[in-house]
Design brief:
Blueprint: E1 16-18, E2 27-30, E3 46-50, E4 53-57, E5 60-63, E6 65-69, E7 75-76, E8 81-89, E9 95-97, E10 102-110, E11 113-122, E12 126-133, E13 137-139, E14 144-152, E15 157-160, E16 167-168, E17 174-178, E18 181-185, E19 190-198, E20 203-212, E21 218-223, E22 227-229, E23 233-241, E24 247-249, E25 253-258, E26 268-270, E27 276-280, E28 285-293, E29 296-305, E30 311-313, E31 320-322, E32 326-328, E33 332-334, E34 346-350, E35 353-354, H1 356-361, E36 365-367, E37 372-380, E38 383-392, E39 396-401, E40 408-410, E41 414-423, E42 428-430, E43 434-436, E44 442-446, E45 454-459, E46 463-471, E47 474-483
Parallel strand pairs: 4-11, 13-20, 22-29, 31-38, 40-47
Antiparallel strand pairs: 1-5, 2-8, 3-6, 5-9, 6-7, 8-9, 8-10, 10-11, 12-14, 14-15, 14-18, 16-19, 17-18, 19-20, 21-23, 23-24, 23-27, 25-28, 26-27, 28-29, 30-33, 32-36, 34-35, 34-37, 37-38, 39-41, 41-42, 41-45, 43-46, 44-45, 46-47
Amino acid sequence: MRSFVILLVVLGACLLLPKNPVAPIPVEGSWQVHPSNCSSTTGVSQIIITPNTLTLTSDQTVTFQAALRKSNGQAMAGDVIWSSSSGRMELTSGLFDPDVAGMVTIGACAGTTFATVSVRVLQGATVDLTMWGDRTIMTADDTLTLTVTAEDEAGNLQNILIPTSDWVRPGGWTVSASGEQHQLRPKEAGDWTLEVSVLGGLITAHWNVTVMPGMVTGLIGYASDYDITSDETSILTMEFHDAHGNRWSVDGEWTVTEPPPGASIQVIRAGIEPGTAIFEGSVAGVWTLEAEHQGEDYEIQIEVRPGQLHTVELLGDGALMSVDDSLSLSPMFRDAAGNQVTPMSVIWLVDGVDVTDDLVSSNYNLTQTSAGVHTIVLSADGRVAIVRYEVTPGRCADIITTTEIDVLMISGTRFGFGTRCVDGHGNSFPVDVDMSYPLDTLLITPDEAGGLGHYFVEAVKVGSHELVLTVDGRSEPHYIDVNMGEIDSMSV
């Protein structure tokens, strides 16, 4: 009976290990294509390499195993020489350390027998990022294409897509993927730095880009204040805008398209800063303004309210009135632009006496019971107006004489007297009167030296005579008794 010795070859498990230094010196990838480079083991009919299919990253290592078979299929002992088309391969141990990503051929050779398997090497862990774009200057209407490239420790480069959560970008920018590239649509104009990151922000890449405004879609006009007084100003500016909300100042023209009623003065002048204008408050009311530049226009409205009190106007200076009449004062309170203003505080003084309540209640119609020259002082918020006017007595209510004329006279004598009227307010004044008395009883002549309302009366005829004084239809009777004087002569 023939005895057979069966050699059992136990194959070790294939291990994928992170890169670590290996004791034997590895050989750079080279393709062992000639049996002269094989091991000295003979009688090998087949070499079985395990693992026979494998995918690993460039930062991992793997140890390959080889099983030798005779022509009859029996296992046999022996050594092989290992080789690889790239990377670093330990010739005798089968320890493979990849580098370049892609397909790698692993070879094992013993005697004249040669076997190969294919290994897929993938990109290893990222150690660096690079980002580059198709432009560094663009408008808000353009699209920016960015490519992000990851590099592993072996120097392999691969374009990768970055999740939107790992982008640092201005608000409003959108990110989308197109193949291996990123498409970014900007919004706000300015100088921006875009950033991507991997590994929780440990590795980053940046791209700087300048975004200019997009195509003009309209014009907007502004006022620094839309509600001002006639003493104030409002700064006007105008801006172009694009479809993305970007705005930039332009130096256009401002005009008044609809002023308030009665406004005729120019209220817009050039501003201090370039591209600005100044609207000056004037006539109170709503002003409609139009901004215009390069065929685009925009309309705004500014309301102007009366400003601070500037002048007080009071009618009636130099007026002449009777105590029976009233004087309409019609006060006007105006700001510097001529708008009517309601003052905070108003005080009326007539000859130093406060008559504010009386004038307000009478709608500023002044009555005066005392004849003579009077002064009105109107004080409003620190502004003063003064009016002087003269008051004459009213209609005659009573006739009085300066000397008692109901007297007893001696014929041939005379005396002087004056006549005065008293109006309904007690004002008295000299007045010429009409006189009636019996013919040839009295002789009354004007006292030229005494002036208005002064007379001389001379007794002519003995008896009791009625003298009637009349003014403005009012009559006052008086009685003068005349006695005979001393006898100058007698006749028979």
